[in-house]
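new request in #modeling-help
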Amino acid sequence: MSATTQSPTAVDSRTPSKAQRLLGDRRLPVAVTALLFLVMYAGGLARYQYYGFAEPQVFLNLFIDNSYLLVAAVGVTFVILSGGIDLSVGSVIGFTTMLTAWLVERVGLPLLVVIPIALAVGAFGGFLMGYVIHNFEIQPFIVTLAGLFLFRGLCLVISKESISISDPGVSDMAQAQVSLGMGFLSIGAVVSLVVLAVAFYVLHYTRFGRRVYAIGGNEQSALLMGLPQGGTKIAVYTVSGFCSALAGLLFTLYIQSGDPLHATGMELDAIAAVVIGGTLLTGGSGYVLGTLFGVLVLGLIKSLIQFEGTLSSWWTKIATGVLLCAFILIQRLMTTRKKA
Amino acid sequence: MSTPSVTTPSRWRALTHHHLFWPVAVLVFLLLVNVPFTPDFFSVKMTGGHLYGSLVSIVLFGSPLILVAVGMTVVIATGGIDLSVGAVVAITGALACSYISHQADQNALGGVLLAMGLGLLAGVACGLWNGFLVARMGIQPIIATLIIMVAGRGVAQLITDGQIITIDSDPYKLIGGGYWLTLPFSIFVVAAVVAVTVVLTRRTALGLLIESVGGNAEASRLVGIRSRRIKIMVYVFCALCAAIAGLMISSNTSAADGNNAGLWIELDAILAVVIGGTSLLGGRFSIGGTVVGALVIQTLTTTIYTIGVPTQTNLVFKAAVVIVVCLLQSPKFRAKVFGARFGGRFGGRSGAKGGAKPAATGADAAASTDTAAKMEVS
């Protein structure tokens, strides 16, 4: 619809005012999120300056404590950019923690064998969902909902109780620190930043990335242009499944156990991070860097609540909901302006 | 297909083509599976003036789900979806229970009614907010209702202060755990809500209006239907149903748990709606199908308990059911897997004309791809 009403030469025929141009800029939501992060961080500095909030390690801990969320959110960014949605993220993470813990502890496989297995299982799960979504034209929402049930159920089939990992290799890896001079990062945080960089490159500098944007922008047009739509769709869900499995591995490292109830509802956190990061939920517009800021904002809310001390954990949920609402309304405002 | 002059097959066909045939068949099958494991599965005993039995308990434990699913059906019929019902269940229960727990006399009828009123009002407020976001702001339903889904649990925990509030109130206990005329009271509540919904949607033009909004909101607006108002109305109705379910759940356990009350109920409700044959694309719905769908899910849970399959596989079963039902509903899948004839026949059930064509294989294949194409466009 929008493609037919929006004339491509609008920029030449009339020069929009500065405010309109600003509102129409695709980078605006990302800038708003980045600004929000800075304001929140500065607020935290002002309020808790005597409690050690200014230490660089507090900032770096944001990356360490949210590494798994960042990886999962990067996967979800691909899916949402292509105009779909993935609800199975949390369950795949939970299943990966369980599978890893079970393979390492009960079966006794070395970690180097377990990691590829876990990643392959996650990617294969995503591939299957993408295959069903594309080939049988069932809504992504309902297919990934089935995925949510399936993987959570498989967790419970492996074991009802949590399995703690006592393998020395795992705890060594979990405690390894990468020094940055003023502080340190964990291996998980480094991996998540690498994933972010790769995703940035893929989305903005490769053919596959362009196809993802094209399909999300207008599936019909993409089809008419002759883009290999099916392959791209399936690939997007495979990427998401792979990222979820990787997030599950990072979560296992972070928490050093597998539990059938790990990461319940994390798909909502991931979707919230992507939306707060400025990606349009209708697909086709957004930046993976925005997702980084979305995750950082969510992480900062958590650490501010910890520093405050008197606030209870459920304020995190309420704050997330309020932010989500605000950003959805901003998005709405932007898209209506663009159409006018 | 056979000629229409032969009566038995055509009656059979009319039966199998009825939109409730497959959901009811699944339900009956699931009920029968129980018989070899518990021979007295269908018996209903009278003990102490109350009726007891597996069938009664399936309806009793399934009643919150039926309520939520009926509300969800109407929302899905307009082409929307409501993810916030679980959070609404939690908020309602938390509000009602915390109000009652602050009363000096927890058994006072006035206080209990006021508490229930407060809970329902909160539910309606959530529904209005969802409807406002979807109809006025034009935000996708999945996302608009995601806000309350995320924030609502936080609000519920805020109300209960993160505790599980337990209460001791006999009048409140009646809604979810009490008996009336030998049957669980909640069955009557569910029956009343379902009856009112069916009468409103099938005896008045409301059902038609809802379906037309689901079919094409813009076209119905141009025809003169106030599609925005109808959309807001269905979200309020859905939230109200969820609120009643919330009262029921908290009353059954005499406790409000902001964290776990109604957890995943939105997914079960959507599943019930899908099993009941309502298309997720909107535009047509079946309340009866949804009730059967909700009973199927509850029976599935009960069956898993009785036949001694480990309960943790419950979720895997549910996933399998979702996948199978969705695949059967997908025209492309039917055309591919069952071949042309089945594709046509099922297509006929869902409103397209594929099944009526003559049975030449080539023509039938064309018909079924035709059906698939039609479904895609709509």
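bot summary: Residues 1-6, 342-378 of chain B have pLDDT under 50 and may be disordered.
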